[in-house]
């Protein structure tokens, strides 16, 4: 997910840099028009997107589930691998259905016409409370917290205001745009490295290493800004050191928190709560 986000951001930077010399309004209209292309591709692709086999199996449409599962695997429905996966899927769904029936029986006390009963009838909101039960609340806390702090470290504020930072450091307009694109490329390198390091080094170690490195870079960056913000013209070496630590901060974020925070929530929840847990973590991210 983070790799796609960073790649899209870098493409947007590149398009903006390439159209900045166009005459008239096309310097900003063309980038907006180009954004329509991936949107149209996504929109038309939805018509040919296959149904989820698990969703179909949950609705007892087992033949359709088998058909679409074979399509996704590019194998025939009679293939043993497809058959085994299909059976495992049906067994898992049957188990989850039985588990939900048990939970409904345990929560039968809500069937008294109370406010909670109405909530359950309207949106089945009571099932979301399972994420906060004593068995799972720590997992929910980790998933929500890790996504919250991925953004609360200020990476987006920093990336979206880099042109202001570069302007304060007295770079000209062309250099500001070029450095913004380079910063996006640096983040992409960091995110790409996580494809190999996340399993070799481990999730927790990457988060710890990334936090320490970003903390050091942040202190140095803020200290240099505080010390030389009004005299950059006579301290160009300090300005470039400041830019260097800004790049290192971005690289550290992309290689650690940027990618790991998307991975952990999808791994720590049991199957019955995975969808709700990931939804809560993503909600924390966007909030």
What's the SSE blueprint?
Elements: H1 2-19, H2 26-34, H3 36-48, H4 53-58, H5 62-73, H6 80-106, H7 115-123, H8 137-152, H9 155-160, H10 162-168, H11 173-200, H12 203-228, H13 236-255, H14 257-263, H15 265-268, H16 274-286
What does this structure look like?
77% of the residues lie in helices and 0% in strands. By secondary structure, the chain is mainly alpha-helical. The chain has 2 domains: 74 residues, no CATH class; 150 residues, MFS general substrate transporter like domains (Growth Hormone, Chain: A, Up-down Bundle), CATH 1.20.1250.
What's a quick, concise take on this entry?
With 287 residues, this protein is mainly alpha-helical. It is built from 16 helices and no strands.
Distance between the termini: 17 Å
Helix fraction, binned, reads over 70%
Quick one: CATH superfamily of the largest domain?
A: MFS general substrate transporter like domains
The residue-averaged pLDDT reads 84
* Integer count of domains: 2
β-strand number: 0
- Structural class from helices and strands? mainly alpha
User: Main β-sheet: number of strands, strand sense, barrel status?
Assistant: none
Task: Quickly count the helices.
Answer: 16
- What string gives the helices and strands in order? HHHHHHHHHHHHHHHH
Low-confidence stretches: none
Strand proportion, as a percent range, falls in under 5%
Question: Which radius of gyration do the C-alpha atoms yield?
Answer: 25 Å
């Amino acid at each position: 997910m983070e790799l796609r986000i960073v790649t899209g951001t870098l493409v947007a930077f590149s398009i903006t840099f390439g159209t900045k010399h166009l005459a008239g309004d096309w310097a900003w209209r063309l980038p907006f028009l180009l954004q329509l292309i991936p949107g149209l591709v996504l929109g038309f692709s939805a018509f040919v997107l296959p149904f989820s086999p698990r969703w179909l199996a949950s609705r007892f449409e087992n033949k359709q589930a088998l058909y679409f599962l074979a399509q996704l695997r590019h194998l025939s429905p009679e293939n043993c691998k497809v058959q085994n996966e299909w059976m495992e899927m049906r067994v898992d769904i049957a188990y989850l259905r039985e588990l939900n029936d048990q939970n409904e029986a345990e929560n039968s006390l809500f069937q008294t016409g109370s406010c909670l009963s109405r909530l359950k009838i309207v949106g089945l909101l009571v099932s979301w409370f399972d994420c906060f039960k004593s068995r799972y609340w720590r997992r929910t806390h980790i998933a929500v917290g890790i996504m919250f702090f991925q953004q609360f470290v200020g990476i987006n504020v920093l990336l979206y205001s880099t042109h202001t930072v570069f302007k304060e450091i007295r770079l000209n307009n062309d250099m500001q745009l070029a450095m913004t694109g380079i910063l996006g490329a640096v983040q992409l390198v960091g995110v790409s490295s996580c494809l190999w390091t996340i399993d070799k080094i481990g999730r927790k170690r990457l988060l710890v290493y990334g936090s320490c490195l970003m903390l050091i870079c942040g202190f140095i960056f803020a200290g240099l800004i505080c010390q030389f913000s009004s005299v950059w013209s006579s301290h160009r070496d300090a300005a470039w050191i400041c830019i260097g630590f800004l790049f290192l901060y971005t690289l550290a974020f992309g290689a650690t928190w940027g990618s790991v925070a998307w991975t952990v929530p999808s791994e720590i929840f049991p199957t019955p709560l995975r969808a709700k847990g990931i939804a809560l973590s993503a909600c924390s991210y966007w909030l």
